[in-house]
Each structure stands twice: as structure tokens, then as C-alpha cells.
Amino acid sequence: MSSSPELRLVLLGNSGVGKSAAGNSILGKEEFETRPNSLVAVTQQCEKRRALVAGRKVAVIDTPDWFHAECSPDEVRAQISSCVALSSPGPHAFLLCVPLDRPARSELQALGVLEAVFGVEAVRMHTLLLFTQADQLRANGKMGGGSDVEAYIGAERADLVKLVERCGDRFHVLERGPGGAGERSVNQLLERVEQTVLEAGGGCYSCPAFQEAEERVRQRQREIAHERRGGRGEQGEPWAGRPPMQTLPEADEDQEDIAEARDEAERTVGAMRNNCIIMHNILYCALSFVDQYGSNIEIF
Ligand SMILES: Nc1nc2c(ncn2[C@@H]2O[C@H](COP(=O)(O)OP(=O)(O)OP(=O)(O)O)[C@@H](O)[C@H]2O)c(=O)[nH]1
Ligand SMILES: [Mg+2]
């Protein structure tokens, strides 16, 4: 395994836009369930999966469509809590998936919700638009004679240009296709994410919600360690006081235990939404934002 730090990517967007399929492309394996033309949302819970992609450790957090009108406040809170805990101590990039083969209607508001929930800097510095369905666009003949998607966006898609500008000109067209086109596109995406991280100062995104989640995850990780060791003192834990996911010189087994305890801690903290003050606050912000946009907003 690579010793470089893990790159954490959060997939966001409306149902059916291709979040899970993008996650599978990035990881190079079918980890997330996808379904064509589904009338109901396929992904119902946030899920995290990992892979080594072209020498990089990558963790992808797939999310349900929590911008959706039918989600109750409790469901939205649960999804946000889970997303925050699974991407703790913070994602390196939020990837907002936007399909190219239809007009962007609610994505601008989605960026507003992201800002309200995670802070302005989350969009300004750490959000990248991930354009999906480029092959469909070509197949439907919507690009005229050209094949350059970027030229098409610049010339014909004022709706997408607005989104791109809002995200600091960060976007990537995720290509599928034979002959390694998909892999090349994923590599270019990861390079773009790394560039984004550098431009943002070199680290992952952080805000009080992620800081609080990280504290809770570490606390829970200590408790799990304590329980697994039959209640013996904290001094015996191989990972006491270490940063998350840090590798240890000890046996592989220890490292696996640490990773397992960390994963379990992230899952349980994600489900502990009712006693998390900051998560209540971010939900409150999100819902006030939605109130403000009222009926103009298709999401929620
Ligand atoms: N041709 C083509 N199909 C795509 C592309 N991206 C996604 N799809 C297909 O679109 C369908 C929906 O994709 P999903 O990844 O399940 O969508 P999702 O955003 O995860 O949807 P929910 O889980 O319901 O929120 C699947 O059949 C995918 O294979 C793409 O770039 N090109
Ligand atoms: Mg999905």
C-alpha cells in the first residue's frame, strides 16, 4: 500500500445523476449499487469504500440524494451526520455530479445548500463539478458535429458555465469508454483533486462540524479499543494518541484492527445525530436556506 495520505472524496448530487457509477469508476470496481432509469433513489445510505488507484489511497463516500424534496428534516440530518462522520476529519473534495445530457436546474441551489451546511469555503475551495453522461450527450447528437465537451459547454451551456464559475472554475468531464479512456479520465480527475488540495493550502476541508465529528470518532475509537481489550486500560491500545489511519510498525493484524475500529467508530458516530449540537446547527442553517428559497427550489 502507498504510504501517502488517503484522498477522501464525497459524491453529491441529485438522484440518478451518476454518483454511484462515478464512485465505481473512481475506485475501479463495482462497490456501489447503480440502476438505470430507477424511479426511486437507489442509494439510501451514505457508504464509504476504498481502493488504491494508480498508487494513491482513495476513499469515496457515496451519498443518497439529500437535496431531494421528499426527505424529511430527520432524514436530511441523518444523512449529513453520516456523511460528515464517514469523511472525517474532512473531505479533500466534494464532487457535485451534474449530468451533461439535461439542463442544470437545481444545481445552483444545491451549491447554496452546500455553503449553508458546510460553509462558503467548502464550495469556493473544495468543490469540483463532476460532469457525467458525456457519452450520452454525444450519442444523442446534442453536441452538433463537435466532440470537445469543454468547447460545447463554453458555447452552448450558460447554465453549466455559471456552476463552473461558482466552483472556482473547477470541473472534470468523467469519460467512460473502451481503450482505457475511463481510467485516463479517473487519473485526470485525481490530479485535478490534488491540484485543488494544493490550491486550498494542502489539507482536507475542515469546519466545526468536521472537527466535532473527528473528536467524537476518536473518542468512540478509544472506547471500541477498550471494549475489544476486555475493558483493560487505555495505555494498552496500540493507537492511543495517534492520528487517524496512521500506519504502525507493528504487525499487519494491529493495523487491520485499528482500521476496523476507525471504520466502526465513523459509522456509529454518524448514527449518533441526536446529541450532536453542531450537526443540529448545520441542519438548521440548511433548512433556513431552503425556507429562504421557498418554492423556487426543486430540491428538498
Ligand atoms: N451512459 C452513461 N450512463 C451513466 C453515466 N453515469 C451514470 N450512468 C448510469 O445512470 C444510471 C444511474 O446512475 P447511478 O450511479 O445509480 O445514479 P445515482 O446518482 O447514484 O442515483 P441514486 O443512488 O438514486 O441517488 C446507472 O444506470 C448508471 O450506469 C455516464 O456517464 N454515462
Ligand atoms: Mg447512488
TrEMBL record:
Coiled coil segments of this chain: none
The keyword Nucleotide-binding belongs to this UniProt entry's keyword annotation: yes
Annotated region described as Disordered, given as residue ranges: 223-256
Domain of life of the source: Eukaryota
A GO cellular component entry from the record: cytosol
Record keywords, A-Z: GTP-binding, Nucleotide-binding
Family according to the record: Belongs to the TRAFAC class TrmE-Era-EngA-EngB-Septin-like GTPase superfamily. AIG1/Toc34/Toc159-like paraseptin GTPase family. IAN subfamily.
Molecular-function annotations in GO: GTP binding
Natural source organism: Gadus morhua (Atlantic cod)
Database matches in CDD domains: AIG1
PANTHER family referenced in this protein's UniProt entry, alphabetically: GTPASE IMAP FAMILY MEMBER 6-RELATED (PTHR10903:SF167), GTPASE, IMAP FAMILY MEMBER-RELATED (PTHR10903)
Keyword Membrane: no
SUPFAM superfamilies: P-loop containing nucleoside triphosphate hydrolases
All copies of domain AIG1-type G, residue ranges: 4-214
Name of this chain's protein: AIG1-type G domain-containing protein
